[in-house]
Specification:
By secondary structure, the protein is mostly beta strands. It has a single domain, classed as Maltoporin, Chain A, CATH 2.40.170.20. A hairpin with a 7-residue loop joins strand 1 and strand 2. The longest helix is centred in the N-terminal third of the chain and has 12 residues. It is globular. The two termini are 44 Å apart.
């Protein structure tokens, strides 16, 4: 433990946490033209259309491509854990199911968008997204809204909204790395940008021998994936554009199972083949007062399970989601603006020949006032589901500047999520399940900006949920939890005292407990929700030759693998070191993950990677 505390204190003490005396918040004008491109830090997760983060009281974090590259490697979860409120669990090694939890919410309650396309798998048990099949090399930017935001995005946004923008490089970019367990990861991308047309395509290939998914096993479980993403835009006029994007990923994962006669988790020769493809085509209009973004999006995920555990009866699932949507923004008068939208979504679930489907029609509106020193907005959404009928959700947020670089913000949001088609109609399903609902509250104080010389933020949050859906390992069926609550605090610090030095720290304390009166598990922690999680980072670039060195220290507290609190998951600490050297258009880099070879589990019975070293090179032309 002492070595971790020493490294942590070094990270925190290294920079002089000073802020620019001349730094001021640069608020957008009171009623800025919608979709303005000159704003400092924009996000689409708040309203569905671009807005400066200073104009919303909702808690939003953004990570850019530079930071993703500095962390290095294909594992996106290592980057995501730099965001406040985020924890991740993985079933084994690379390619194993990776769930991301935000503020104690289930991983299935995080709405995930890739280039604006909803990619939550309609055929997965909880309707969530598996981050194990998404590699970091294709991602340009990550936006995360923490807390419910069903007003703008509808169902599945109970825990938060994450939008990932894929790369569309201007020129040619490439990278290759090799390291532990015979791991090879390569990327290649190219693009062009002109006055009227821009297009970019990026592809990658990843192959690793891996290690045993079962912690008790000895047989390596490998993983292989290739992936292609692309984006394009054509400007018909100065105010009208046609846009399109697409993604395809194909992977094969070796898995372990429960072989006879003991049926304990152990080595087996099982395989999971997965193909994912998604895309969207649409149009964007930007006028003086009115802006519109409309499109049609599709996401499709197919999984096939074969091998020792399945014998002559392979198991296959297919999930498909189609969505027609329109988002709008209208400047009414002075600082008053209306955000609105409507969509229709179709979902289909296929389970070894049995097909089920559902649809939902939705509309929403948010009215806001945006002044140079403050903003406030409130809105409502109406959903009409083909099975569960109609539901109203509400939300509001506000932000006030109380000094030149100090602001207070607050938000309230409601969440609504219907049971997944798997939870309703699979072999383990129950058609009597009720939709999950939640109410979330957040208040925060922020000083400075995340990309500025100094940033400090603290947030208090609480989310009360009803009818959360869980799986009973005794009856082997899904059921509703009566009540649950997640509440806690987030602290975020960042400093850039010079162009050559950057430090950051995020810490989250969250209590996620069953609050069902008289229930068997009343007062117990919800499973796989550690109460403590912290990431500290330090990056330094030498003033000569551009040599860069960095480290990430991750500390996660204890949790339980089950709601009965019978199986404890001990807390752990990991340390990553990295470095890079630029040589013209080529950059050489290398890293060591889990420097002190910590042994830990994020899911009971599944192994995790020990000390691992990698070297590689990047090219940019």
């Amino acid at each position: 433990m002492y070595k971790y505390l020493f490294l942590l204190s070094s990270v925190l003490a290294a920079p002089a946490l000073a802020q620019d005396a001349d730094g001021e918040i640069e608020y957008a004008t009171a009623a800025p033209p919608p979709m303005v491109e000159e704003v400092s830090t924009i996000t689409v997760t708040a309203t569905g259309l671009p807005i400066d983060v200073s104009q919303t009281g909702q808690p939003i974090s953004i990570i850019s491509r530079d930071e993703i590259e500095s962390v290095q490697g294909p594992d996106l979860s290592r980057v995501l854990q730099r965001m406040p409120g985020v924890t991740a669990t993985r079933n084994g090694g690379a390619g194993g199911f990776t769930g991301v939890r935000v503020r104690g919410a289930a991983s299935e309650q995080l709405l995930v968008l890739i280039d604006g396309v909803k990619v939550n798998d309609a055929a997965s048990p909880g309707g969530g997204f598996d981050f194990g099949n998404l590699l970091a090399g294709e991602i340009e930017q990550i936006e995360l809204l923490r807390g419910p935001n069903s007003v703008a995005w509808g169902a599945d946004a109970m825990g938060g909204v994450m939008n990932l923008t894929t790369r569309a490089p201007d020129g040619i970019v490439a990278s290759a790395e090799y390291g532990a367990r015979d791991s090879v990861y390569t990327t290649l991308g190219g693009g062009i940008r002109g006055d009227a047309f821009e297009m970019g395509v990026t592809g990658s290939y990843y192959d690793t021998d891996g290690f045993s998914a079962a912690r008790s096993g000895t047989e390596d479980d490998g993983y292989r994936q290739y992936q292609v993403t692309g984006r394009a835009r054509y400007r018909l006029t100065d105010i009208l554009s046609i846009v399109a994007n697409g993604r395809y990923a194909d992977s094969r994962l070796e898995q372990d199972g429960y072989p006879a006669p003991t049926y304990a988790f152990a080595d087996t020769a099982d395989l999971q083949d997965t193909s994912e493809w998604s895309g969207r085509i649409g149009a964007e209009y930007r006028g003086d007062r009115l802006s519109l973004r409309a499109g049609y999006a599709l996401s499709d995920t197919e999984r096939t399970y074969t091998g020792q555990s399945y014998g002559d009866f392979p198991y296959a699932t297919k999930g498909r989601t189609e969505r027609a949507e329109v988002f709008g923004q209208y400047a009414l008068a002075g600082p008053v603006r209306l955000d609105f939208g409507a969509d229709r979504e179709w979902s289909e679930f296929e389970d070894s020949g049995t097909t089920r489907d559902a649809s939902i029609n939705s509309g929403h509106a948010m009215l806001g006032i945006y002044l140079p020193f403050a903003s406030v907005s409130a809105g409502a959404r109406y959903d009409d589901h083909s099975t569960f009928g109609d539901e109203w959700t509400f939300g509001a947020n506000a932000a006030v500047s109380i000094a030149a670089d100090l602001r207070v913000r607050a938000s309230y949001g409601e969440g609504f999520k219907v049971p997944s088609l798997y939870q309703l109609y699979s072999f383990y399903g129950d058609t009597g399940l009720n939709p999950e609902t939640s109410k979330g509250y957040d208040i925060g104080l922020e000083k400075g900006y995340r990309d500025g010389p100094f940033f400090a933020g603290v947030s208090l949050f609480r989310r009360d949920s009803r009818n959360l859906i869980d799986f009973d390992l005794v009856s082997y069926s899904y059921y509703n939890i009566g009540k649950a609550r997640s509440e806690g605090v987030e602290i975020e610090l960042g400093a850039r005292p010079s162009d050559n030095l950057r430090a950051g720290l995020v810490y989250t304390y969250v209590e996620s407990t069953d609050r069902t009166p008289g229930g068997v598990y009343e007062g117990n922690d919800l499973n796989r929700r550690p109460r403590h999680a912290m990431t500290a980072s330090l990056d330094w670039t030498a003033p000569f030759a551009g040599i860069a060195l960095g480290t990430d220290i991750r500390m996660v507290g204890d949790s339980f693998d089950d709601r009965g609190e019978w199986t404890r998951l001990d807390g752990y600490q990991t340390v990553d070191l990295r470095g890079s050297v630029p040589l013209g258009t080529v950059e050489l880099f290398g890293r060591v993950e889990n420097l002190f070879d910590a042994g830990y589990e994020t899911v009971a019975g599944y192994g995790t990677a020990g000390r691992s070293a990698y070297v590689g090179a990047r090219l940019s032309i």
